[in-house]
Amino acid sequence: MKGGLRPRFWVEVTLATLSGVALLLDLVSKEWIEFVFRVDPDHGSGLLEAVIVVVCLAATVISSMTARREWRRAAAAA
After folding, report:
1. What is the DSSP letter of 42?
2. Where are the alpha helices (DSSP H) in the chain?
3. Predicted TM-score (pTM) of this structure
4. In this structure, what is the dihedral angle of CA atoms 30, 32, 37, 39, given to the nearest 10 degrees?
5. 9: how many CB neighbours lie within 10 A of its CB?
6. What is the mean pLDDT of residues 23-37?
7. Integer Cα distance of 10 and 4 in angstroms
């Protein structure tokens, strides 16, 4: 079945993985933006980090769902 998977599947899996890692990073350390970029864009309120958590969660869920649909499409075609 691996041959039946389109490149789209691998893009979706990669996006789900990267957004999941970013989500975990943000949940573990709320100060990573300030540490990495040496700026405080939200002036300590944590709003930017909260937005990043929500966006990463949405990207992870959506990418995972579309990759699963692609996997099932390939399985049905095989």
Report:
1. T
2. 7-28, 32-37, 47-77
3. 0.81
4. 30
5. 19
6. 84
7. 12
Task: Quote the tokens at residue 29.
Answer: 């350390």
Pick from 36, 34, 58: nearest CA to 45: 34
Three-class secondary structure of residue 60 per DSSP:
helix
35: which residues sit within 8 A by CB, 6+ positions away? 29
Percentage of the residues of the chain whose pLDDT score is greater than 70? 96
Q: How confident is the model at residue 3 (pLDDT cuts 50, 70, 90)?
A: low
> Which of these, 58, 67, 56, 64, lies nearest to 26 by C-alpha position?
56
CA atoms within 13 A on the CB side of 55: 9
User: Is the model's pLDDT at 19 over the cut of 60?
Assistant: yes
Going by C-alpha positions, the residue among 57, 5, 2 that lies closest to residue 27 is 57
